[in-house]
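Batch manifest, entry 17 of 40.
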Amino acid sequence: MNGYADMKPVKGNCLPVRRAVILLLCTLLLSACSGSGNSPQSGADTAGAPGTGLDAGDADGTGTAGDTGQMSDEPGADTTGGHVDATADDTGSGSEAGMGDGTPDPLAGNTVTVRFDITVPSRVSDALQLEVVWGDETLVASWVGDEYWTATADFPAATENRLIVTFYDDNGGIVLGRLEQDYRTGSNESEVLVILADQFDTALWDDDNDGSSNLEELIAGTSPTGSARVLLFSETRGYRHESIEAALQALEELSASSDILTVRAEDSAEVFTEGNLAGFDAVIWVLTSGDVLDADEQEAFENYIRSGGGYAGIHAASDTEYEWPWYGSLVGAYFERHPEIQTATQDVEDGSHPSTTHLGSRWTRTDEWYDYRANPRAQVTVLLSLDEDSYTGGGMGGDHPSAWYHAYDGGRSWYTGGGHTESSYAEPEFRAHLLGGLRYAAGLAD
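Output type: structure tokens
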């Protein structure tokens, strides 16, 4: 005979009853663990494929014959089957959530936040639109300022679709240019796709068939006739910034994008007269310095503001006309001192103004940061304030306004402390900040 039935007990080696009971209980416990799929040898293969006879613990893949099949024939097989169904529901089939071999696809169900930063071909119009189509998704981009537009959406990760970006005039009625290309999203949480103006095909659209593309001629939107006019005033009698020319060019470009006509003046003579100033919707003091107006010119400018004119001051405009108290109240505050050029963070206190609506709650950039002789908060609406913990050398403490606006003496006034560096005028966010201030000063935006 084979097995334990053939064995004879050996005197002195009989197992005590208590030990036999313990061994029996251990055996039952091990059997229960094996059946529930919680033992190290009961892996996903055993639980997920009843009746296959494969044991996840066997290195050769042959398994222990009948292990799983026997379980399915015994009471409790329905419970095992229920566990398999639940596992299948959780992980999905290979075609839905897996890789086809039972391994979950780590990208399945994930999304990536894509921001499109788009520069369009320059166009003067008040009825422009920019549409972004990717697969079944359609976005309408937001205008940032100048030729800059942006759109943001969540897309499936690691997925490719045809991308079509169309630039329109007449609120979608006239195509000015289009970009088509395949675009595949990545697997990071977010990414930025930059599209430049020269990537747009503009020659294909000529709605009046005159040989000139829609982009090359004014056939919709705003005509320059009746446009707002602003004076770009940049006279200096003190320090003269090297960035003045870059500032003037930027303001001219921004004005052109908004159908605003500009005139430069580096000298106040024969410019600051009541008759001449009456032809402008705003006067932009572009990094001016020192005592630039005589008494008659000061009186003419005061009367211009009292007649509803607009003023915008950039950076060193607060380093101007210290002996003219009316001007100090117009600009809001006089310059006191500044530390070295460095990166700092501004808090956006009012994001509803056209000069800050494109910003988030915080704005970090590099510039020369002014302290002012007095805090203007009580007389103005503060747009931006400096976080002095974000840079070194600030001297105004916890309340440090850096951009503001207010109604003053019958007119409008907007000021920003930024703009010392030439590179400022190439920054899309700073350019949009300037454009919003310019539009407010000219009475084109509240």
